[in-house]
Every structure is written in structure tokens, then in C-alpha cells.
Design goal:
Structural class: alpha/beta
CATH class of the largest domain: Alpha Beta
CATH superfamily of the largest domain: Aldehyde Dehydrogenase, Chain A, domain 1
Shape: globular
Strand order of the largest sheet: 13-12-14-11-10-15-16
Helix content: 25-40%
Distance between the termini: 73 Å
Largest sheet: 7 strands, parallel
Strand content: 15-25%
Number of strands: 19
Number of domains: 2
Amino acid sequence: MRATVFPTVSRRRVIDIASLLSPKRSSAHVCGAGLFSICTNFSWLGDFCLSVVAMNTESRAHESAPGELSLVLTSLAARAREASRKLAMLGTARKNAVIRAIGEAVLGDARQILEANAHDIAKGEARALSPAMLDRLRLTPARLKAAVEALWSVAELPDPVGEILREWTRPNGLRILKRRVPIGVIGIIYESRPNVTLDAAVLCLKAGNASFLRGGSEAHATNTRLAASMGAALATHGLDGAVALVPSTAREAVPLMCSLERYIDLLIPRGGHALIESVVQHARMPVIKHYNGICHIFVHREADLAMAEKIIINAKCQRPGVCNAMETLLVDAPLAPVFLPQIVAALRAQNVEIRADATACALLSSANLHMANPADWDTEHLALIVNLRVVDGTEAAIGHITEHGSRHSDGIITENSKEAEFFLGVVDSSTVYWNASTRFTDGGEFGFGAEIGISTDKLHARGPMGLEELCSYKYEVHGTGQTRE
């Protein structure tokens, strides 16, 4: 197999790790099903640059031994740490110029990016990925353009870095300032959606952080091409290494990344239960989890039924394969005989499969509803499937959400303000709604521009994570010679 490299050849050494991927080594997917070379001191992507040399969906590539992979990741992380120091000193105008350059580079490379994405889609179809997963993976010209426009919108947002959050003077004359600062290097581990590669890198950059990205195997060709485009733009601004992409899809890369606390300040995993549990188990640095979206809507007995139908159809059907789509519909018992026939007909008109509890099935015996099984209430379907349960009042609805929800997004539909305020105050989710679709839990919809994800944690960040959530703070103490007694 003949390797090709990008024209900007290193003045130092080229590490060709093809030999590390021989059949004698342990087998694991690298670059999807491709062979890659890592070149030191390339102008794009810091001291380590990924060059995809071949793609073959019929063959299986081989991974380097864990020690060798650890060396590669450590070197990438070290360069990201070095770049983070440069980013922390950049002014707003310079950061915005870099963001615009990244967008222009991505649009200029649109053909190559879409070709790489078509390769990933073909692999995904061959692996029988679910329609929801393929939808998350797919890039179209319109989606790519929208992703770039989202990046450019970040350039228009206020820069949080340097903002004084609080200022006061002590009786001894010490002046104390609490100032917002970058976190440093943020590692992001995610699945499927290649637009996350762009969003994460640019949001981190605007907040003065370097990013260390590890995407899923299903999007590796797309992510590699996106990283190349971003790296070229960063190099022109002297920011080599500010965006690093893990060049392996092997599972070993995740625990190895979790061990790099010397270089990575924060990890943000976005994905399913297994991924997040693995990161939490192995991480030596703080973790902000972006967990499942088991989102609920409760239709209270005093709801406007036309409004309820409109909201439910939007929350379930507008884009079912995303984390803020409704998965469970709760209907207040006094309303059920009237509203269930209406909403079941509306959902079936959208080809939604309904998995209902015994009460709903009895009320609609002629509708031949599927009986929900216990696992359904704890499942993020990410498809045109909805759970349906009849509950007796707001407290019962909250009890169900507390037991089965994921603290993501949950809503109530009612004209009774006291019931709504009770629901909003008690439901322990990152975002709670009154008479609106859960689909609005999104950084763009909240006015944050692009988002790093939706945190289901409580500490440091919660809900859609924008620029402010990608910052920390420090105290500056200004004195005039004071000493402590």
C-alpha cells in the first residue's frame, strides 16, 4: 500500500506507523478501516499530523500496541497544552479571525469533507447502523453550511475571557477581583455527529482553550478531514496543536486519554451509557457528563389540547434521533379518555410506534397499542417510538420522571400557573419547560451559538454548554504592601 502525505512536509522526522499496524499486532479499527501515518512538526495540527493514506471498507486495519498508542496521545496532548497557553493570551479580535478562517477552510474543502462523510455513511450502512445513528452521522451540503454558519455566529458572541465576575475591597485595603479565565485543554469524547468536531473546537477556541477530540469510529473519515481543514487554518495563525484529533478509534484510546491529567484539564463525554461509565471509571481529571436524553412531557388536566398536540408532535417527530426529543408522554388521568384518542391518532399519522401502559391500553382497547415493557421507560429510543403512561396528577408525573428520567429536559403543558410552577420547581432536570417543546434544549436556540453539548450534571455546568461554561475563574488580589497579622 503506497502512503501519501500532505505537501507541507516536516523538517524533522516522519514517523510512519504502518509497521506498527502489521498483522502481528493486536487488531482494532484505526481510521475506520484505513492506514495512517503520523508526521511530526507538520504545519497543521501541531507536532503530530494525521494523514489518511487509504480507505478500504472491506479490510480491517491493525492498531499499535497500547504503549505505542500512549506515546502518540501523550505527544498530541502535550502540544495541545502548549497551544492552550498561546490561546489564553489571544485577544478577542484575533480569536474571531481564526474562527472565520476555520469556517472558510471548511467551506473550501466541502467536496473532500462530503466525500469522506459518504465513505462513513457507506460503512455505517454496511454495519447496519440504526436510522437514527445514520441521521446523526450524515452531512449534506446544507448541514455543512449550517455548521459553518453556527461557527461564524460564535465569532459574533461576547468573549467571556477576562470578564470580571465580582470585585470588592477588604477593610485592609486589599482589592479582590474574581475574573473569568480559560480552563486550558478540554478533552471531548463523542459519537456519531461529525458537526461536534467543529462545534467543540471552535467553542473551546473562543473561550481560550485547546481541544483534544476523540470521535466515534463511525465518523472517523469525516472527522479526520474536518481536522485537516481546521488544522490548515490554525497553522496560518500560528496555532499549531490547538485542535488535536485522536488518530485511533481503538477502545484503548479512551482510558489512555483519561490518564493524561498532566495535560488535559477537563473531559466531556457525549454518548451512551457505556461510553460515559467508561470515562467516569478511568478519568483522573474532572468530568462533565452529557448523558442520555430520556425526556418527558406531562399533559396536565388543565392543558390546552390543541397546544398539547402541537407540542407533542414537534417534540417527538421533528427530529427523533436527537437527545432533546421526547421519549415518554405522561397524560393526566382525568384528561385521558378525551385526549388519548386525539393524540394517538396524531402520533400514528406521523408513523410513531406507541408503547403504552395497561391503563392507556384499556382505554384504547380498539387501537391495538403495544404494551410497554419495564425497560421502555428507561430507554432513549432515538426513533419514532414513544412511551405512553396515564398518571394521576402532577405529583405522580414528577414521581415517574424522578424514577425514569435522565435529568435532561422535561416539560408540563397546562393553563394552571401554580401547577406549572410546582412542576418547574421540583423536577430535577437541567432544563424544564412550561407549554413548549423539549426540542429547544440547544445552545443555538438558547442564543449561545454552537454548543459543546448538554450537561446532565449539576456541578460547574448544567444544560446547554456555551462559552461561559467552558471557562473557570481565578482571584486577583491587588495590594499596596499588606501583610497578614
